Task: structure prediction
Amino acid sequence: MRDTTSPVYWVWLHELQGLSPISKRKLLKALGNPRDIFQASLQTIVSIVSKEGLSTEGASLVAERKSIGVKLGPVWSSRDLRIAEAILTANGKGAIGTLCAHDVRYRHIFESDSQSPLVLYYRGTLAPPEVPVLGIIGSRACTAYGRMVTVAAVTEAVGKGQVVASGLSFGIDALAHQTSLEQGGTTYAFVPCGLHKAQPASHAALFEHIADSGAVITPYAYGKEALPFRFIGRNGLLATWCDTLLVIESGGKGGSMNTARSALAKGKRVLAVPNSLLEPRSWGTNQLLVEGAKAYLNEKLLRGDTDHRPASGKSAHGGEGTIIGALRDKAMATSEIVLLVGDSGCAVMEYLTDMELADKLEFRSDGKWHLVGGP
Result:
């Protein structure tokens, strides 16, 4: 018989449909572990997840229990471990770790937020829980100002021994990850899908580099795709995991604002980079300063230290021109483009991100970059 800490029961409960996260937590509190929940009778489960012990009494409580029993009955009578076992088998083949709520590396995070998932899946290596985590997020179509502040903030964080966390998206996210890697730091990427692929697909090489020295983390099992509601779940998890969240640039709406407001609601320390009121890509960060975020001020940048300005060939279009010229001859992987341009991986990712957003390039299923409309 499997022991009570076996991940198969945790994965089963995490993936179980028909019970809310709050109900699953109530069951854990009452029964102690997922194996005992799995072995419990429907009557026991209904008794725990109903409002027993609260103000509801008499006929209304009986009716509520009956309703819960009718909804949960078919799910409970057909419960088994096959889905959980299949997930764990896929994890084993993909070098994917399973992080359960009782794990010392996750327990403090799980207990701090009632919406935290019972189980997370990850690739890579997690730092000890006492190491501070700085989340850095922002606009996909970032400005030169945003890129400069991102590099400065990441450099400062790595120097302090902090983990830099972000969402692997275009723009600020990718730059934060890449800069952390180039600085020799540890970075976490939180993704809105299973770990069978990168999201977006064009960041596959970056995904692998992060997994080599840091970790890629998700609440979604192998094979699950990046549906819209899963981006919201990813954002909430990122907000919970970070000790501090720094928003570099953001418009008035979008994922960065959702993550920042989630962090504020959780009582996290949120920093926002102030900018001109006339800059649309900073409307959101300026608004966050009104909503409770603190202004991010970097002493070196305030003194005019521009050593942290990211390398960029945009003034002469050298990097972009070299890439476009090469792709006219053949499609290329990201690593090939880095070698071709002879610039830092950070700068190359900037070129590729900007050109993809401008519909000049596209990353296809063959794992290579192509000119839009080209072979």
